[in-house]
Amino acid sequence: MAKIKPFSPVKLICGIIASNEKVFNVAEDRLIKLYGAIDNKSSFFSFDYTDYYEKQMGKNLKRRFISFEQLMSPEKLSEIKICTNTLEEEIKKEFHAGQRIVNLDPGYLTASALIMATTKDFAHRIPLKHGVYAHLELLFGRKQVRVLNWTYPDYKGKDYHPFFWEARRIYLEQIKQLGKDYL
């Protein structure tokens, strides 16, 4: 019989979409209070692959990714998604906005994959708990990022890949320091 062992820790990441730099700053500050220090931050990317959020959040949207220094259990992804959804509402109220002004997309990196949390069900998504699903977004090979048929269009482009490679490099170093049980 195979021995059941705990999951290896993973690197928490979060994508932030907004149009206002002050909103980005508030979101990052709140996320730091919840999940600790940031160890990697992307530049801003134009979020123009879809107009999905435009009706709610307006035009000229930007996206930024951050990753957190503290590793976590992958089992926490559901509660983190619920927390970031609540945080979106709090920021909306703080800015006295009538509609959503920030989108927070948590996920995590492993040595081999990027998993994002979503509340939208689809055939390739795995139910976690509390209405949250795991969405396998990207795979990491030794020298390249692999996209999948269902990878979101903006993740398919290579703009984001350097951020994820660097976050993965940091993660692999952290896992190496934890010892052979996590490799």
What is the topology?
Layout: E1 10-18, H1 21-35, E2 38-41, E3 45-46, H2 54-57, E4 62-72, H3 77-94, E5 103-109, E6 113-118, E7 126-127, E8 133-140, E9 145-147, H4 153-156, H5 161-178
Antiparallel strand pairs: 1-4, 1-5, 2-4, 3-4, 5-6, 6-8, 7-8, 8-9
Helix pairs in contact: 1-3
Description of the molecule:
With 183 residues, the chain is an alpha+beta fold. It has one domain. Helix content is 32%, strand content 28%. Strands 1, 2, 3, 4, 5, 6, 7, 8 and 9 form a 9-stranded antiparallel β-sheet that branches. Helix 1 packs across helix 3. The longest helix is centred in the middle third of the chain and has 18 residues, at 77-94. The mean pLDDT is 93.
Task: Name its key features.
alpha+beta, globular, 32% helix, 183 residues, nine-stranded antiparallel sheet, 5 helices
Radius of gyration: 16 Å
Number of helices, counting only DSSP H or I runs of 4 residues or more? 5
Count up the domains: 1
What oligomeric state do these chains adopt?
single chain
Helix content range = 25-40%
The residue-averaged pLDDT reads 93
Number of strands: 9
How much of the sequence lies in strands comes to: 25-35%
Largest sheet: 9 strands, antiparallel
What spatial form do the alpha-carbon principal axes imply? globular
Poorly predicted runs of 5 or more residues: none
Helix and strand content put the structural class at alpha+beta
The CA-CA distance between the termini, in Å, is 22 Å
